[in-house]
Amino acid sequence: MTAQGVGIFTIEFPDPYTLSYYNDEFVTLGSNISFQYPITSNIQTLSAKDVERGNDPYGILYVPELRSDGCKEAEGSYVPTNATRLRNLPSGTDYALIGFLPWFSPQCVLEYFQSARTSPVKALLVYQPGTTNAPPPGNNDPSWSLGDGGNWEDANKFPVYALSSTSGTIVMTQLSLYSGNMTDAPHGDELASLFSPTDYVRLWATVNTQAGSQLPSLWVFLVIVLGLLLLIIFVTSSFMHIVQRRRRRDLQRRVVEGEVDLEALGVKRLTVPREYLEKLPLYTYSVPGGDLEKTVPQESPQPRDGAPETTEQATPAPGVPTAQNDATVSNQASSAFSQPTCPICLDDFISNETQVRELPCRHIFHPDCVDTFLLSNSSLCPMCKKSVLPGGYCPAKITNIMVRRERMIRRMRARGESESIEPTGQRTGGPVSLRDRLASTAFGRRVFGSPEQTQSGPNDIEMASPETAQPQASGALPAPAPATEITPAPDLAHTRSQAAPECTEPETRNRREWARQRALALVSNSRAPATDDEGNSGSRWRRGLRKVFPGFR
Amino acid sequence: MSTGAKKRIMREYGECMSDTPPGMKITFDEQNMTEWEILLDGPEQSVYAGGHFKLKLTFPNEYPFKPPVVSFKTKIYHPNVSNDDKGSMCLGLLRPEEWKPPNKVVAVLRLIQTLLIEPNPDDAIEPSIANEYKENRKEFDKTAKDWVKRYAK
User: Fold this and answer.
1) With contact defined as beta carbons under 8 Å apart, do A110 and A152 qualify?
2) Closest partner CB to B100 (pick from A341, A343, A511)
3) Which UniProt keywords apply (chain B) (predicted)?
4) What's the CATH code of the domain at B98?
5) What confidence tens digit (pLDDT) does each residue in A180-234 have?
6) Which residues in chain A have their CB less than 8 angstroms from residue B128's CB?
7) What is the ipTM of this complex?
8) Contacting residues of B for A512, CB less than 8 Å apart
9) A340: phi > 0 → left, psi -120 to 50 → alpha, else beta; which?
10) pLDDT tens, position by position, A57-105
11) Full residue range of the structural domain in which residue B103 is found
């Protein structure tokens, strides 16, 4: 144990002859009226013998006696005559002691050691005489050599610490001040007023060997394991984040390029932003020209010849901003569907009076009826399910859940296609894989349990007449194609089971198969979720888990 | 539910009243106009003749953007009606992806009547009943009539 610091204090304790007391009953004096000297640096541990953890050496400072006359004489130039000696302490009591000595000649130091061994010394503090404040020389420095090959370390039953020269000189000077009566010490009168004048005032030292924060090895091990775990989690998490970010960007790119239609796929229910909705044509309904008599004779409260002018005077409703100029208005009005009624409220449009909103697919509605629907429910025309949004419109934020849905749908599609190409194989005999079964049960439940949850598909274009289909062709994307490929499959299964003479056995599989096919067809049509509800579902820790490991199922 | 939707339901109710398909009785509660109760007589030319079927027509909040939900409260042996306590139907224009706002309730009621006369086994919700209907019509007729006697009298 190397020493981290040495504290020198002044203590006051009563004379054991006048008072019975325990060895450690003493008063540490404050720095204002006594000597206090914390030494936290420039300490060299020469020998750490017999010092155990949590058992720091402490004791009253004293200078051991020398025996030989030569050394006694030599000592005089380093140790003041009135430095605290053993005889300056109350005799007959075993105090914890710390020896303090100048390291001036090997011979004399050995004598010091010898003398210290006969007393209850807990440790020795030494210093090489001089005036430098530099750290004491290292252990192997020849100046510490006593010419006995290091035997002294074994002979001593206490540790030895070296202080710097200046620290040693200071302490030695103080040691001479606190050796006699209390009144002779610095601030003696003050002390005498505080304590009984027969009490002793001496220097005391403690050596702090606690090596900072040395943790027990088990804890170290645990901390390392924990750190490794955290590191693994961090690395995995950031890896998943990176992957997920790449997927998000990829999806965004494909959406912008028009490869993927989020709403048609049922990945995300989009809504129309207000500023875009306001750009959609809004004009006064007027009975369309030519086929007026045939289609809606009762519809026109005004004579036919009024039509051309009314298209000219089509004015935007006050307070409702419209983006287009009059030319486009009349243009669109003439080519619009001849819808006499609003399909939502079933009220008739009144020519030259009713304001109508026209969607890019040319369907017209009361703005009151359709605007809230488009703003808050869907971006698809309620009539033909064609997107109102321009191709490549991308919602501001592609979320992880959208990415996951899109991937799931793509995977389902791929499997559905590969199976319709190759209808034999696992379907006829082999056990249905767990994945298939899970998928079929999951979707089967959705099909049977709550049909009202499914909605709105893209593959309904019968309403869209050919010339209306082309302007916003990007709305209808590759999405419908696989769905149509899938739908014949149940029939296929049927014909097969018909071919089989006994159809009780394939019955259950048939049903499952049918459910799966239906699920596949539904995937493309299933209601696109309005919010990222899945992200908010589940317990809190699940949500946290999803945040840490995006893409985790 | 928006006032527009309520207005529309009221309007449709009026239309249904003035032009109720034969063999049908509609009960309508002013307090809860989104749930209609319909008493439907089995059409004479079908296997369900003589039965009285109770149906519930529920209008979703998003009506008319989403189709009304039809469910048979009376058990019926039919390929297009789910054979559970829900008795749900999901085909044709009742299917959310095929539903269009201009479709009317009258059309839905007519569709149900037509389906009782002529089930659609190719778009069945109960494949086993559909199979039987296609391959063993006699057995199907027998069970259907049996169920009418048992549940729909």
Assistant:
1) yes
2) A343
3) ATP-binding, Nucleotide-binding, Transferase, Ubl conjugation pathway
4) 3.10.110.10
5) 888 888 888 888 888 887 788 899 898 887 655 555 678 889 999 999 999 999 9
6) 507, 511
7) 0.73
8) none
9) alpha
10) 888 999 999 989 889 888 888 999 889 988 888 876 777 889 999 998 8
11) 3-151
